[in-house]
Write a structure and sequence with these properties.
Blueprint: H1 12-17, H2 20-29, H3 33-37, H4 41-48, H5 86-97, H6 100-103, H7 105-112, H8 114-145, H9 153-163, H10 166-169, H11 172-209, H12 215-229, H13 239-260, H14 276-289, H15 293-301, H16 315-338, H17 356-392, H18 401-424, H19 428-455, H20 466-496
């Protein structure tokens, strides 16, 4: 029964004492968001803005999921200056996951064999998506207890440790610091890979049509444009770049599939199961490919309608199902087409150099990854900048000249750091495997189940403590991949050098 109907049969004393204004107020409280919007353009516009809530209006939403029982839920009414729509969030999510990792999947299948590669990629996608849901769920649970504030990855780690057993609570600050370190390593590693990928593909195009220029000069040429692009400070203003990158990536993948499906060899030409020592390299590349764990919370925290992010048909599942299927297809058909030649870290480098279309694909993918760079850079900068700001500037205003100069200088130095890393290890496949095994496995497979166990302590682990057993299994799987994957990646880099 709605709130308005509760006033249809009041007693006589209530009839006499209730004014017309009060009745209208109660009726307005029972309106749905759409109905309220019909009362005037201003009210409609206000309800579209997630950071607006009238002091006199409480909207009753009957069809929302149980978590969002009230429109007054503080997790909905976030104070956002530039909120993201569902479509914008999906675009950023796809770009946060579909990057250089998808083009390295044939190399992953080469290390694992097509059977383990096929089922291993699907399983990895399911586990990583589940861990993303864990992070969102725990962040909401802890955020509501903190007054509805939005939490970062490090916030979730720290507060979950504070809820755990007494002996582990003392390590909450260390957990926060460790999380930020792994996030910075992971995202800066992604930026380094993006740097190398763009330079390598541009080098192939220029070498074919013009001159064979040293790889170092391509990295140097890209430095200034990347610095200028990463001076964009707001995530919403990056949406056009992500959209262009998504369109170019989609067009490039369509053309790549045309090459992969043309004159496909027999499946007997490739191995079914790889060598045991190579399986760790497959793990590193596959975990790296699902590279979106670091941007999940920032995206959800910046949504206009955060309740649309989760759920079986929400933004997260929609993006991750599409991403997993695409990874599997590129990895399988890429390995089937090129076999053991898939060792360069990107399927674009195997395309025939004399085809104009192949050169266009290299150029399109290079531009797409170039425009995706700021989204990956967004996470480490927002970890590093706040503590630096308090030390470098005395003005608390973000738009003051002193603050802007310090911020732009910090952005430039961090981009230059990725340049140095790219120069130090220019082998694309080796960097992808190392970043994936060392840091991505910790963030995607170890930390999320850990925070769920601690956040649910001590009596919310479900029947037979199934949450604990499920999360322990994921943690063990992540640790095995972490140790063996990192060891194999380091040995691989040392051998290449």
């Amino acid at each position: 029964m709605s709130l308005a109907r509760s006033y249809t049969e009041p007693d006589s004393r209530m009839k006499e004492s209730t004014s017309t204004t009060s009745i209208q107020l109660h009726e307005n409280r029972a309106l749905s968001p759409k109905q309220v919007g019909k009362n005037g353009n201003d009210e409609k516009q206000h309800l579209l803005d997630s950071d607006y809530q009238s002091a006199e209006t409480s909207v009753f939403m009957e069809e929302e999921p149980p978590f969002y029982k009230s429109w007054d839920d503080p997790m909905i009414n976030r104070k956002l200056e530039h909120p993201l729509s569902n479509f914008e969030t999906l675009v950023h999510l796809l770009k946060g996951n579909i990057g250089t990792g998808i083009l390295a999947m044939p190399d992953a299948f080469r290390n694992a064999g097509w059977i383990i590669g096929l089922f291993g990629t699907l399983m990895m996608g399911a586990v990583c998506t589940h861990c993303m849901h864990i992070m969102i769920g725990v962040a909401h649970h802890l955020g509501k207890d903190c007054g509805g504030c939005s939490l970062s990855f490090a916030d979730v780690m720290e507060k979950s440790f504070e809820r755990g057993p007494k002996w582990i609570q003392r390590y909450s600050s260390a957990a926060r610091c460790m999380t930020n370190i792994f996030l910075c390593i992971t995202q800066m590693g992604f930026c380094c890979v993006y740097f190398v990928f763009v330079a390598a593909n541009l080098q192939e195009v220029v070498k074919h049509y013009f001159y064979d220029i040293d790889f170092f000069w391509f990295l140097t040429f890209l430095l200034v444009p990347l610095v200028l692009l990463n001076w964009i400070r707001n995530l919403k203003f990056l949406t056009p770049f992500s959209l262009v990158a998504s369109l170019l990536m989609t067009a490039g993948l369509v053309i790549i599939f045309g090459y992969l499906l043309h004159n496909v060899p027999s499946i007997e030409s490739i191995k079914t199961i790889g060598q045991p020592q190579s399986l760790a390299l497959f793990f590193g590349t596959a975990v790296y490919a699902f590279e979106g764990i670091g941007v999940i919370l920032p995206l959800e925290n910046n949504m206009r309608t955060p309740c649309a992010f989760g759920g079986w048909n929400g933004v997260l599942n929609t993006g991750m199902v599409f991403t997993t299927c695409l990874y599997t297809a590129v990895g399988f058909f890429g390995y089937l087409k090129y076999g053991d030649k898939c060792d360069l870290g990107s399927v674009t480098l195997y395309l025939p150099p004399n085809d104009l279309l192949a050169q266009m694909v290299r150029l399109m993918m290079a531009i797409a990854i170039f425009f995706s760079f700021p989204l990956q850079f967004y996470v480490p900068f927002n970890i590093i900048w706040p503590p630096l700001k308090s030390k470098l500037t005395r003005d608390k205003c973000d738009d003051s000249n002193e603050s802007l100069i310090a911020e732009y200088t910090t952005r430039t130095i961090l981009i230059f750091l990725t340049f140095l890393l790219a120069v130090a290890v220019p082998n694309l496949g080796a960097v992808i495997t190392l970043v994936g095994a060392f840091s991505s496995s910790a963030l995607a497979l170890i930390f999320p189940p850990m925070v769920e166990i601690l956040a649910c302590y001590p009596d919310r682990w479900g029947e037979y403590n199934y949450i604990v057993w499920k999360d322990i299994f994921i943690i063990i799987f992540g640790f095995i991949g972490f140790f063996f994957g990192t060891y194999s990646a380091v040995i691989n880099i040392m051998t290449l050098e």
